[in-house]
Amino acid sequence: MMEGKSSKRPAGIGFRTKFILVVGGAVLFDLLVSGGLALWNVQRLSRDATLEVGQGLEAASQEYIRTYADSTAAQVSLLLRQVHSDVSTLAGVLQAQIDDPARNSDVGAAIARTSPGSVSLSYDQQGKWSQNAPGSVSVVSVWGYLLGEDRKPRPDVESDIRTSAVLDLVAPSLLQHGSSKLQMYYIGSKERPIFRTAPYTDQAQTFDRLYPGHNEANFWDFFFPGLYESWQGWAKDMKSRPVAGDITQTAPYTDAITGKLIVSFFHPLWTADRQDVAGTAGADITLDQLAQTVENVKVAQSGFGFLAMSDGNVVAINSTGEKTLGLRSASDPSEAGALTGLERSLKGSSQPAIAKLALDREQGIQHLLLQQDGNDVPYIAIVKKLPATNLWVSGPVRQEAMLLGVVVPEREIDASLYAAQAKISEATNRIVLYQILAILMSLLIVTIAVFAASKRITSGISALAGAAKRIQAKDYSVRVAISSRDEVGEAGEAFNRMAEEISYHTENLEQLVEERTAQIEDAKEEISTLNAQLQRENRRLGTELAVAERIQLMVLPLDQELDDFQALEIAAYMRPAEEVGGDYYDVLKNGSRLKIGIGDVTGHGLESGVLMLMVQSVARALQEAGNTDAVKFLTTLNSALFKNIVRTKIDKHLTLAFLDYDGKEMILSGQHEEVVVVRANGEVERIDTMDLGIPIGLEADISAFIKTREIAFAKGDLILLHTDGVTEAENDAGELFGMERLCREAVRLKDLSAEKVVAEIVATLMGFIGSQKIYDDITLLAVRHR
């Protein structure tokens, strides 16, 4: 016997060296990866913290701006409400005088006695008007067209002069209290527009100087064209007021007497019968207070506010804001009677972003880019609408809601954000430095530990390697002695057990092979028996399904039955999703009466098909028994089916509807899918059956739920009955065929025969489904009136 040559493998790197390289490299890689992930997470945490802090500060800043704007708007609204209240108070006193003529006359006479200067007028030769002398509480001016030939006021005008003197009692107190007002006054009706104002001024003289020709034209038409007519419209219909309330204000304008920017507030006075206008009470206020409230707005360092009309005309803003928004001021020359208004419009701004501001609705916080020194500077703006009021400019009174705006540079709002981000960045850099030092220290400790552990671990592994070579040489008696209690020691114990099992299995291998072979033969025989049983069961089930399918098709109406009713064309199509379907349709004739039924059993398959056959049998029996009451028919059918369902323990029920036709009326009963009726003129009527019944087989008695509905059915009309397998059929894209598509097809085919209508709709449906699997039974039935 020849000995084989033994080949020695070339010496390579020692196991301990490999262990140190592999383990040390793995640990080093792990430290680098975990350290890198830690650093990445720190950076990410820094970014997230910066973002979160930024969003929080931004939200807080924007909320601060909103609150500031709301507070300022409330202050402005409060000032306006105070003026409204003062004007309403004066109007209330004057209206009370108008409503009580006797008291009005008494009060006027009393004031004339105690304060004759209030009602004694002198004629002015140059101006051709009359006016009381200085020293009175109020000045009253009577224009030339209100004087008689004797240059004295007409009697009706004289009466108004006396009664309007009540202003002397009320106006001084109102002027001293509440909001600051320039003057308060009474203007008479259009027929007698005397003008009484408190405090006393050279009223008529100023008008002559500033408004030539005013004394020859009616006061209302000259100064306030269209205002009086608007009030007359309100007297006829108070709902015609643009804003609920009588107070009417003008747009801000420059007062001709004082030269100040003012707003006039009017409260119309009504005749005692409330059918016409009797004049007005009014007050003029300067915009100093409003302007001061707005101009004092200061958000951050250079944020500012502005007050504007709804058309964008800015009436209050500080000089910084005016320059920032690029506003241009101009006073347009006016016609003789017009007031001089301030024109300083946002729409005319040199800043494109300001010119495009949406003023018709509140936009919330808006971010704008405004040009400053050739650069685009980001700003934050918010515009609030003040409560709406009635406004007169020229012509009819309209609704007006003044706008309050707050504008602030984003860099100032975000100053705290930048500071917080800098602090977060500083803390992040410090954490990164500490993390790098921790990684380096971990690397040093791991390197020392690897060198220390390698010697102990590799000695046991070397012993295992030697024992494995003896196993390879078929020396199964070898055992390894390793004293350590770590994983290497466990590996040695496992090696010894493996060696014992190899020795045992080697000695008993042939016996084990014979036992396994016998077990495999027994399993094969058992599998063959089960296969044979399964084949017999499949043949049996196939035979049963074929019989059920044939029975189901046998009970469907024959073609000659569908053609047997002369007044109607009837055509039908049914395709089950499996061998046996759960859809039901039938056409039952008894004498001159025709009953058409359609239903859908829950699910499909053998049990559904059996329940469908029960429905057909019971319906045929009831029809043959002469049951003509649609409600009783369904109630009796349900009772029979419910008992059969309980007996057979079939967990099924069905939707079921019937059409009863006696040659004159078409009666619909029972709950099923929508019934589609296409009239001869192409109109489509979809009839919902949900309220005509409930599913069959759920309750023992359903008589309380069954209702009927008469359907008009004239010549040329078409009725479509269907199950949900038609409308819920899907194409490859998951889209449903749907009721809308079914109705469109019905209208398109309305002039064809019932058989062609069914054939064309089915062809369209199958083309729509394409290669998609049909999951539900499909049934379609068409009835046409010949």
TrEMBL record:
GO terms for biological process: signal transduction. The chain crosses the membrane at residues 20-40, 431-453. SMART domains: HAMP (SM00304), PP2C_SIG (SM00331). GO terms for molecular function: phosphatase activity. Pfam families: HAMP, SpoIIE. Keywords: Coiled coil, Hydrolase, Membrane, Transmembrane, Transmembrane helix. Residues 506-551 form a coiled coil. The keyword Hydrolase applies. PANTHER family: STAGE II SPORULATION PROTEIN E (PTHR43156:SF2), STAGE II SPORULATION PROTEIN E-RELATED (PTHR43156). This is SpoIIE family protein phosphatase.
